[in-house]
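Both lines are quoted verbatim for reference:

——
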Amino acid sequence: MQYGVRSGQPGIAAAYTNYQQSIPINAKSPLSVRFFGESAMSTIDSPLALTASKKSSLYERINTRWHRAALFWFMAVVLAHWAEHIAQAWQVWVMGWPRHHAGGALGYFFPWLVHSEVLHYVYALLMLIGLIVLRKGFTGTARTWWDISLAIQIWHHFEHALLLGQATTQKYLFGATVPTSIIQTIVPRIELHLFYNTIVFIPMVVGMYYHVFPRQREIELSACTCARHRIGI
C-alpha cells in the first residue's frame, strides 16, 4: 500500500500508526522516542513509558522525567558543601588559621552561621532526604553504589543529630566542653567531616556513572531519561 498526499489517502501520521499496528508489541524499540516523541511510546511495555503518564505522583515524576534535572541540582548542592569543607581544611593546613576561625568561604563572611549546629544538621538531613527521594530512579549496579552512599550518610546524619542535641541541651558527651560526636573523640572535627563528605560523595559519583552509562544487561531497567542512550550521547 502506498501513501501519498492526495485527498482521501492516509497521511504520514496514519502511515506510522498502521506500521505500529503491523508489528508485535515486543518488537517496538524505545529508540522510537527519539524520532516520534513520548506519545509514540504510550502503547509500549517499557519503563520509559511511565514517564508519559500525566497521573503519576510528584515522587514518580522526580524519579522518571525529572530525574536528570533533580540529580543536577542535588549534585550542585553536594559539591558546594564539599567545596566548603575543602576550603576549611585549606585554611587550617595551608594558611595556618586557628581551627575556630576556619569556616570555609561561607564562614569567612558569616562566621556565626557556620558555627551553628542547626545549619550543619539541616544540610545533613537534606542530603539524606535527597539520597532517599532520588534512590528509586537508580537500578542495578547504580542502585548498589547509591545505597552505599545512603548508608554512610545515615551514620553521618546520626552524628550531626548528636551534635545538635548537645548544642540544644548544653549537655556534652564524653566530658567535652563543646558538642562532640562519637568518632570526633578519635578524629578532629574538621578532618572528620571532610572525610565523611568525601566517602559519601565517591560512591554517589560511581552510582551516577553507572546510571548514565549502564551495563548492557541493565540498559533498559531504568525508568528515567538519564542514560546516555536516551539523551543521545
Residues 12-45 form one domain. The radius of gyration is 25 Å. Residues 141 and 215 are 8 Å apart (CA to CA). Residues 1-10, 23-46, 48-52 have pLDDT under 50 and may be disordered.
